[in-house]
Amino acid sequence: MSFFKRLFSSDKKEANFTEEARETLDKGLEQTKTSFFTKLTKAVAGKSKVDDDVLDNLEEVLVSSDVGVETTLKIIQRIEKRVAEDKYLGTDELNRILRDEIAALLSETNTHVASEFTIPADKKPYVIMVVGVNGVGKTTTIGKLANQFKKAGYSVVLGAADTFRAAAIDQLQIWADRVGVPIVKQQMGSDPASVAFDTLQSAVSQNADVVIIDTAGRLHNKVNLMNELTKVKRVMQKVVADAPHDVMLVLDGSTGQNAFEQAKQFTAATEVSALAVTKLDGTAKGGVVIGISDQFQIPVKYIGVGEGINDLQVFNKYEFVDSFFK
């Protein structure tokens, strides 16, 4: 039994990852799985052995499934190595080998595995600064994240530092009301750093556990974005010395290759430490999770697999791959 087969055996599944969560994940990845395995079946049709033709077809399947060119080439090279070592590799074994190699790639970036919404005990308040372009589900992700942290027993404060759009402040207020958590906001056009400062001061005075700061979704140019986010971070550190503890980039999984471009732009503009990939339930482009995680070497922390308030999950690489190849 291979290392990854042992790793993904049923007794290795996270005890805290509930059956309900697994069902939601399975349903959320349904379109991606159907599309991927339909293509894969065609790629190996009439073949009993993994040869150059099968590998060429597999490369096309992975690229068209939005895994990304660089990550696809890595996977193909790993499989070529396996073929060379095993001399004969049947196409019936391809699913297992793919599963092993994708698991290996995800394990290189997502070294920490969690199934629950937790924060480090020594970081209070734990400050998350959220970045991403408009339309990716940034505000919704913040609301769902606040809900999950609150359900886990943490006190949460939201900061509406996206002062570029009045709608962004209004949307975050709606989520704050829905979840039942306090929000700190100012008028549209206010200094985002001032909002962040006030939010952290409020959180400290309330002895809050978690602070989630929204930021402007525009990507007008990297210099201005970098300057703005750097200022926000610098001002926050006047209140909480090591804030933010996470700079989380929200990406829309349904945009496929466009999500790669957004990740490239934001990682060039600021130090992104975590990713949240949304809208995986409404797309066949779930392969972006694998490619973006590998290409940018930034851990995927959360995934959105449904429209419900509870359908934001902590990304668990074991459960994700298990669901994908189920």
Automatic annotation (TrEMBL):
Kindly state which keywords UniProt assigns to this record, in alphabetical order: Cell membrane, Cytoplasm, GTP-binding, Hydrolase, Membrane, Nucleotide-binding, Receptor
Query: What membrane topology does the annotation report for this chain?
Result: Peripheral membrane protein
Give the enzyme's EC designation.
3.6.5.4
Superkingdom per UniProt: Bacteria
**One term under GO cellular component:** plasma membrane
Where, per UniProt, does this protein localize?
A: Cell membrane; Cytoplasm
Q: What is one GO biological process annotated to this record? A: SRP-dependent cotranslational protein targeting to membrane
Group of enzyme by EC:
hydrolase
- According to the entry, every stretch annotated as the SRP54-type proteins GTP-binding domain falls at 299-312
**So what does this thing catalyse?**
GTP + H2O = GDP + phosphate + H(+)
Q: Give the protein name, as stated in the record.
A: Signal recognition particle receptor FtsY
Which source organism?
A: Flavobacterium caeni
Give the gene that encodes this protein. Answer: ftsY
